[in-house]
Each structure stands twice: as C-alpha cells, then as structure tokens.
Design brief:
The chain has helices at about 1-5, 10-50, 60-80, 85-95. It is mainly α and about 100 residues long. Helix 2 (about 10-50) crosses helix 4 (about 85-95). The N and C termini lie far apart (about 40 Å).
Length: about 100
C-alpha cells in the first residue's frame, strides 16, 4: 500500500523537500541580514535628512517603493512554495 500511495518516488520527493529546505534556510538568512541593513540605512538617512546633511526627494522614494513592492510580489509568486521552502525560510529568518 505504501508503494501505491507514493508510486515509488518517495526518496525523490524527500530529496526535493530537503533541497527546498536548504534554499529556504539560505533565503531566510539573507532576508534577515538585508532587513538589518535596510533599517540601519533608513535610520541614517532619516537622521541625515533631519539635520540637513542629506536632501531626500520623498516623491521619488515613494514611487520607487511601489515598484519594488510590485517586483517583490512578482518574485514571490514565481517561487516554488513547498513545505520545505517555507519551513526553511522561517527557521533561517528566526535563527539567522
């Protein structure tokens, strides 16, 4: 019955989940590090703008943010969202 359910591809399926898990771990780590850098840069730009050392064109920032959000969602829809990828991404983000 076990062979009939998985039609003898259980090893391949588990290998694929393992690969997705490793990719998710790496993506989680990269996202966490990128968020830290983005927050630090945003704070520095905010302080520099407040002091007057940096001139920020907020209209351009808002327009670019919408484009980046759209591209991010496009990339997210193209990812193969398997259980291994999601669990690996969460573990990588938390432990990274």
């Amino acid at each position: 019955m076990f062979d009939e359910m998985f039609s003898r591809n259980f090893g391949f399926s588990m290998g694929l989940v393992g690969i997705e898990f490793l990719i998710g771990l790496i993506l989680g780590l990269l996202i966490k590090k990128a968020l830290k850098v983005i927050i630090i840069v945003a704070i520095l730009i905010g302080v520099g703008s407040y002091v007057g050392a940096v001139a920020v064109n907020w209209g351009m920032v808002v327009g670019t943010a919408g484009t980046l959000a759209a591209l991010g969602l496009l990339g997210f829809t193209l990812l193969p969202l398997g259980a291994g990828l999601l669990v690996g991404g969460i573990v990588g983000f938390i432990k990274g």
